[in-house]
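Field log, afternoon session.

UNIT: design team B
ACTIVITY: writing a sequence onto a fixed backbone
BACKBONE:
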């Protein structure tokens, strides 16, 4: 009986440790997204069907019409996360390299809370930047370099009308050398 309880405790302990290490790997960026996944809309259902001549002529006519008028890329609210992630990843590198070059920012780790607003027209505006530990030079750097070049995002649509939406992003910067 005692051996059974001991085995149960060891099993539970090892599974908890495995979950913790998996979580740490996920959030530290050691694990990547599965590249084998394919969106269902990209899968060709039946490539054995041949296009009829009528469909080909319609396609040629549609293509010639599209070439005459430039298309406006429509922003989708669901694409905002991808766009914002790409933007923050790009500017994290830029800010980190500029932090290393300046003497105004002390050595150490900084957690920056960036509060921004997506307007009804999709323009991103900064509401507040909070830095812990406090560093006015880092706040100015983020304001001038990063937020001045913020991408246009799709506004939130509520009942068919665009609305302002407030968002919050936490960024972590580390300055290695002074």
């Amino acid at each position: 009986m005692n051996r059974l309880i001991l085995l149960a405790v060891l099993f539970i302990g090892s599974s908890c440790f495995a979950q913790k290490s998996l979580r740490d790997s996920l959030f530290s960026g050691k694990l990547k997204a599965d590249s084998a996944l394919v969106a269902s809309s990209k899968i060709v259902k039946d490539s054995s069907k041949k296009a009829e001549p009528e469909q080909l002529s319609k396609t040629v006519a549609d293509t010639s019409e599209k070439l005459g008028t430039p298309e406006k890329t429509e922003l989708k609210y669901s694409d905002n996360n991808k766009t914002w992630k790409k933007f923050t990843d790009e500017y994290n590198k830029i800010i980190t390299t500029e932090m290393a070059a300046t003497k105004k920012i002390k050595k150490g780790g900084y957690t920056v809370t960036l509060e921004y607003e997506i307007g009804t027209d999709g323009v991103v505006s900064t509401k507040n930047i909070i830095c812990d530990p406090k560093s006015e030079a880092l706040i100015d750097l983020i304001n001038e370099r990063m937020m001045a070049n913020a991408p246009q995002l799709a506004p939130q649509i509520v009942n068919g009308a665009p609305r302002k939406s407030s968002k919050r992003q936490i960024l972590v910067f580390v300055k290695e050398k002074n």
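LOG NOTE: Residues 77-175 form one domain.
NEXT ACTIVITY: expression trials, pending approval
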